[in-house]
Amino acid sequence: MRFSFWIGTQHTWDETLELARHxxxxxxxxxxxxxxxxxxxxxxxxQPMHECFSLLAALAATVPRVRLGSLVAGNTYRHPAVLAKxxxxxxxxSGGRFVLGVGAGWQENEHHRYGIPLGTVTxxxxxxxxxxxxxxxxxxxxxxxxxxxxxQLDEAPLVPKPAGPLPLLIGSSGxxxxxxxxxxxxxxxxxxxTPTLWREKRQGYERALAEAARDWSTLHTSTQALVLxxxxxxxxxxxLSAIRPAIGGTSAELVDAIGGWADxxxxxxxxxxxxxxxxxxxxxxxxxxITEVAPAFR
Length: 298
Hints:
This protein is α/β, with parallel strands linked by helices. It contains 10 helices and 13 strands. It has helices at about 15-25, 50-60, 80-95, 110-115, 120-140, 175-185, 195-210, 235-240, 250-260, 280-295, and strands at about 1-5, 30-35, 65-70, 75, 100-105, 145, 150-155, 170, 190, 220-225, 225-230, 245-250, 270. An 8-stranded parallel β-barrel has the order 1-2-3-5-8-9-10-13, surrounded by 4 helices. Strand 9, helix 7 and strand 10 form a beta-alpha-beta unit. Helix 2 runs parallel beside helix 3 (about 80-95), helix 3 (about 80-95) crosses helix 5 (about 120-140) and helix 9 (about 250-260) crosses helix 10 (about 280-295). The protein is globular, with a radius of gyration of 19 Å.
């Protein structure tokens, strides 16, 4: 199982680079950043938040070896052809280590305050399915022509192409239409979960892959949950579970918890650093997880 680190975009650039370099040099497999422009709480709009793809380009140039990805880019924020161009450029900078993580979009206050059309849930999924076709075409074809309801391309190039495979990761939980989109277009599937919740969520995706005559093993799977470290971590995780999936406890307790995913064949655990703070506290947490927990699954 891969172990990857999700860096919050509220950190200063120096803090972000320090955390990324530390993770990269101590055996973590990947670095992920969320694509949001502001906190979801309007009472916290003055909290700093950097732009995802600018940071990813900078990390691609300064942190070697690890995979880098967006978790996940909201389709509503950028035309998919423009996002494909950004992704291919970052992949070139990284030497083929970039993963384009995408989703249909959801955060209402960003759309309202920046004047970006959000659309209904059905519209967003319609737009997203078209965008997946655009990304596939630009990644794979010399020229892409596409005539959708939302997006139109006319013999569009993507030059240079990505340096590597540029996997398409889709972040989703929907058991029907989003599952079918994943089965048709995604190289990777991501969702928030605990081991119990992941078992429930994956059922719809297993069905969709079977309907598409695609083997489950061809889909790289990843998940994330908040991680609370320490003897009281398990109790804190249970308190937070009503808000976000969370696990916690000592290193031994975390090995037991993560084993619930490993037993189901999860490919990658992404650990958000949201509960780790900054500086030595954060790097100590990273070191504990990669030296005391991750070896049980490698």
